[in-house]
Amino acid sequence: MRIDIISVLPELMESPFKTSILKRAMEKGLAEVHFHNIRDWSVGKHRQIDDEPYGGGAGMIMMVEPLDKCISELKSQRDYDEIIYLTPDGETLNQRIANTLSIKKNLIFLCGHYKGIDQRVRDLHITKEISIGDYVLTGGELAACVLADSVIRLLPGVLNDEQSALTDSFQDDLLSYPIYTRPETYKGLSVPKILLSGNFGAIEEWQHDEAVRITKERRPDLLE
User: Fold this and answer.
1) What is the chain's mean pLDDT, rounded?
2) Which segments constitute the tRNA methyltransferase TRMD/TRM10-type domain (predicted)?
3) Is 33 part of any known ligand binding site?
């Protein structure tokens, strides 16, 4: 998988990709992540990338020309399955979206900044818009890191135990059941006896029942 991330501040995103699972995925050749500074396609001698909005209003808008040139150049080099704009008014990221994107080959993530991007960029290029929650960040860079992490960890060969991803919260529209490890008893709190029984059928039933119980308590909307 190749992900191209377009940003005003690409250096803000470099660190997460140099550690842990994301680093491992790239070292194994399972994922490529390339950062592109939109100022490399800026307008005029002052390298302008933003301007005041037509019709007035607060804030600055990312200009259509630099973004169009950047995305068009990338599209001329390869075919992209999705060109994704990270924006608060996009579809809220969930596990289903991450699963779907994980089987794609080439993706572009466009990080919004300032007050947003010229609508014509969305009309010309964007195929999908994603939000990571109902709140506003300074820019789309952190959202792009969240999206990349949620997708790349699902690629075959990235996790040491590939079955682990299949039991994550939300994979089956349920939150995770309680999990325990040694010691068996700590400060008066003991591991449920069923988990020590060796009866794997009964353990799986308990895990499912607990996942349903917790989901009903915390996220009943997932069961609708």
Assistant:
1) 93
2) 1-224
3) no
Q: Is the Cβ–Cβ distance between 131 and 93 less than 8 Å?
A: yes
Residue 80 is labelled as binding a ligand = no
What does the pLDDT read at residue 170?
A: 63
pLDDT of residue 72: 98
Alpha-carbon distance 77 to 11, whole Å? 23
Whether residue 114 is annotated as binding a ligand: the answer is no
Of 48, 20, 23, the C-alpha closest to 33 is 23
159 in a labelled binding site = no
Neighbours of 80 (CB within 10 A): 20
Binding residue per annotation — 177? Answer: no
CB neighbours of 222 closer than 8 A, spacing ≥ 6?
Answer: 170, 173, 174, 175, 215
Nearest CA among 8, 1, 10, 40 for reference residue 145:
10
Q: Report whether 112 belongs to an annotated binding site.
A: yes
Is 133 within any annotated ligand binding site? yes
Residue type at 75?
A: K
CA angle at residue 98 from 122 to 137, to 5 degrees? 55
Cα 217 to Cα 128, 175, 203, 204: the distances in Å are: 32, 10, 21, 20
pLDDT of res. 163 = 55
Report the alpha-carbon distance of residue 6 to residue 90 in Å, rounded: 17
